[in-house]
Amino acid sequence: MNNSKFPNDFLWGGAISANQCEGAYLDDGKKLNVSDVSKGLLSKPKMKWNGARWNPDIGNEIILNHVGNDFYHHYKEDLALMAEMGFKALRTSISWGRIFPNGDESEANEKGLKFYDDLFDEMISLGIEPVITLSHYETPLHLLTEYGGWLNDEMIKFWMKYVVTVFKRYKGKVKYYLTFNEINNLFKIPFAAGGVLDINPKHTEYVNQDLTKADLYQAAHYIAIANAKTVEKLHEIDSSAKIGAMLSLSSLVTYPKTCDPKDVIAAMKFQHQQMFFLDLFCKGIYPGYIKREWKEMGINLKIKSSDLELINKNTVDFIAFSYYKSCVIKDGEVMKTDTGGAYGANNEYIKTYSPEPWKWPVDPIGLRYLCNFLTDHYNLPLFIVENGIGLKESLNGTIVNEDEFRIKYLREHLYQLKEAIADGCNIMGYLYWGPIDIISAGTGVIDKRYGFIYVDMDNNGNGTFKRYKKHQSFNWYKKVIESNGEELD
Questions:
Q1: How far apart are CA 69 and CA 464, in angstroms?
Q2: What letter does residue 29 receive in the DSSP assignment?
Q3: Longest pairwise C-alpha distance within the chain
Q4: 441 CB contacts (<8 Å, ≥6 apart)?
Q5: DSSP 8-class letter at 283
Q6: Exposed end of the chain (fewer CB within 10 Å): N or C?
């Protein structure tokens, strides 16, 4: 009989990223990364072409990533609050530019290495397992402006120097790594998610990617080589550590609008778009649907047989993913996307939406469907490393507004996660995004608050930065962890 209980070694906790919380964006030797010149993923990067090269042109515009929630200076306080909730694990990222500020240096920045030593030591001392993303929208800007980023195969060399430095330095401290955060977003936000930039543009305005589909597939191939080499090298340096792919998989939960076969095929084709990197990283193959696309579009990539052998031999140990919402597709409809996933036709069967202004459809059953889909296709352990709800909240001595909605959202998703476990899915853990208020990747503001911990800061970067428990959800999640998911009501 399958067990509907969470495993005893289940990794409960939360997830954040360096670029959304650390701040201190030029401290201790760090230099600019892609997130430091973007107000948010939904806006154009503040980069201007001067006729010879791209230069950052931030001006006086507020970029909250520069201050984050000041986790760089508050991490001990923040980790203590997470430990109070009983966290077994915390996902964050290493900002590549703290270790190699430009990305192409011969020697690592010791101050950057020391910060993560201290951070991981503090986590471990509190019983919190570090789950570390190697690249979370934090590619050093210099690598894009000087080399074109992942459009250039030299990036593989720079990347491998970085990851080998990290693996050796933190051997025995970090047991779980993720390679590239939501790398399938390369095709919709190539500058930030894919780390690519056209260094010979046809225009002279602000960044407006003159990139073809062939360019992005070539970058994806170099990334796939880097991913395979990273898996190979970690297993060589620290055989006890595990490494996973991390993808945005909300859009994999795409329902056909009707049972019209054309709608069903439209849903299948849209799912294929989400499966491309899964097939590359988990199966080690270029699937037939991609080869068909290349043939029909006349795309010819630089791919060596040795590349294919490397990718096929070095697949990931587990699948980590984000899930926020589902979507519906109708044949002929152009799907739109935001940072939570895709949206198309209306789903009249979903009655619950997150409050204004975001109004994301809440579909907990979609999480069960996704876990089963991944298990059926890839048969790997699964790690939910992003799932949560952003709400408008304010501080008046106590936290007010939508905390009950957050609990309802969490409860219903965790119920469906138990169902997925009963279905036979191997679930490693659940890391809520994000347990403390951080800067929104999509909009570059802080007033889309996900956390169990409120940070006194506004969209202009003003505030005391004092931390407050959102007592209702803070204590509820603490009880869930204490009971290993048995007390959801």
A1: 10
A2: G
A3: 67
A4: 17, 19, 20, 35, 40, 41, 137, 339
A5: I
A6: N
The owner of tokens 């009880």 is 479
Q: CA 443, 386, 242, 314 torsion: positive or negative?
A: negative
pLDDT tens-digit series, residues 92-132 = 999 999 999 999 999 999 999 999 999 999 999 999 999 99
Burial of 389 (0-12, 13-18, 19+ CB in 10 A): buried
Q: Provide the residue count of the chain.
A: 489
Quick one: CA dihedral 339, 18, 438, 130, positive or negative? Answer: positive
pTM of the model: 0.96
Tokens (6 digits) for 158: 């720079």
Q: Contact, 100 vs 162, CB < 8 A?
A: yes
CB atoms within 10 A of CB 333: 14
**Helices 110-125 and 71-85, packing angle to 10 deg:** 20
What is the bridge-based pairing of β-strands 453-455 and 242-248? unpaired
What pLDDT digit, counting tens, does each position of 138-177 carry?
A: 999 999 999 999 999 999 999 999 999 999 999 999 999 9
Residue 298 token pair: 């006349």
Structure tokens given for 320: 């980590």
CB 478 within 8 A of CB 86: yes
The residues annotated with a catalytic role in the active site are 386
Tell me the C-alpha distance between 279 and 7, whole Å.
27
